[in-house]
Known about the structure:
Helix content is 4%, strand content 36%. The strands form 10 sheets. The protein has a 5-stranded antiparallel sheet with strand order 1-7-6-5-4, with no helix packed on it. It has a 5-stranded mixed sheet with strand order 2-33-34-35-36, with no helix packed on it. A 4-stranded antiparallel sheet has the order 3-39-38-37, with no helix packed on it.
Amino acid sequence: MKKSRFAALLGMMVVPAVCGAIEYKPVTHERLVSPEPENWLMAKGNYYGWNYSSLEQINTRNVRRLVPVWSYSTGVGSGHEAPALVNNGVMFVTTPYNQVLALNAKTGELIWKYKREFPEGFGALHVTSRGVALWGDKVYFANLDCVLTALDAKTGSIVWESEVCDWKEGAYITSVPHVVKGKVFIGPSGGEFGIRGNLQAFDAETGKRAWQRYSVPAPGEPGSETWPQEGRWKDAWKIGGGTMWMQGNYDPKTDLLYWGVGNGSPWFGDQRPGDNLYVASVLALNPNDGNIKGHFQYHWNDSWDWAGMNAPTLIEVERDGKKVPSLVTPQRNGYMYWLDRQDDGRIDYVRGVPYVKQNVFKSLNAEGRPTYNEQHKPGTGKQATYCPSLWGGKDWPYESYNPKTGMMYVPINDNHCMSLEGKVQERVPGQWSAGVDIPDIKLLVDKNPAWIGGIQAWDVNTGQTVWKEKYEKSWNWGSILSTGGGLIFAGGTSDRVFRAYDAKTGRQLWQFKTNSGIIAPPTSFAVDGIQYIAVTSGWGVDAAFVQGLMHDLSGWEPKQVAQGGVIWVFALQD
């Protein structure tokens, strides 16, 4: 619901422009379908989810001359997970604790700052934010406390606010909004608190809710037969999880959204017998009304917290001499999938292969449905060990597809497992109810693991890996940017280093040590003919938690990586 102007001013702060009036080019559907190389208009760079910049001023021959040209402290700690969006020389970056910064992309001078204070009693599993969306002359930001806000792009003043969810129930929002044809799409988090996953669409001009689509069907709806119909667990669908907490991708040719669906709740499938559609799936949705046109479920009756929240990347794969519209995705369950996307929304399985150590799936049938090794499926009162752990072969960080190399670059974590045993936890609104307490979550690694974090480069046409990078003493929590200059940029390691690699060979060409660890996606843009690389350094959330575990389990240093958010912007020295 929309709030009054007076109410909108309560609990927030806007620092006025310090750089005077700015020129701002409205963001249109045409610009989002074909974004200019000098701008970075959405979280993944384009609707297809490529995380690719065609700019090539910075390339394999000169990247060694890359230097920082400005930096800006965000003023807060915790995990910074938002990319820097740039439109016509104006940069937008979000931070933890409900903050949006608008900066001069060339100089780093602050234009305006928005910050919304948390309501009394608010709490969330994570206090991070993964970015803003742009449309028209507005900036759209999803506050952690379940409020979607439209800001004036020039001044940062509030245009409208709409309530998305109820934080008192345990819901919260870390996702970046996604805009298609004047609708703003957002999905809340909170599966571990018994939230039933959903995606909502709001009118970009008015903030009025256009539709809401639940990922877990109610009785009588298509897919409801895959949930318990009677007995002890017959109401499991009401708290079934499947939160849609990462942004989707979009195909302008077929006018279809592709959105990922998270893990089941509670985590243990024996408390919700059945396949549990549409948990751990990708959905093809009509953006106009939210109707589900097709789906593919990566694994049924999810019992490992292997959320399928990352939407597949839209690529045309070469097969038998033809270009086939496809979905390619490395999922948290440790498998890489190739799926065909049809014009009517149907999603057909083509191929699935493990890309990290995985001991749960015995095999995949012709439709991509796995057969399980029950020994490695935890349950209520049943302890089991499985690989990869709940953080998966790849967690939320973005892979990148480069159309010039034909490769997908995947940030991965291998050689880690987990031991879990479930229990029944009564669902109390606003309280953790995953079926296991956090202290009982046991990460299992070798005393001296050879390596865990890394990068894999996959040829999407042949389905083969071309090169691999391995980090001996670190996990990888960083998204990847690939460029027309034949480079990939990546952070993600506990040594606080930002790196550039040759996209074809994997040879490291450049590095820079930042103030903190990097878990935010890098982006690239240009102003006045100069190409820049931007990334925010700011360690925290799961990366910090796991680093502490690795210190205790394997003696990795440091136990705590320095925190504190800083936006870094680089250009060639000359």
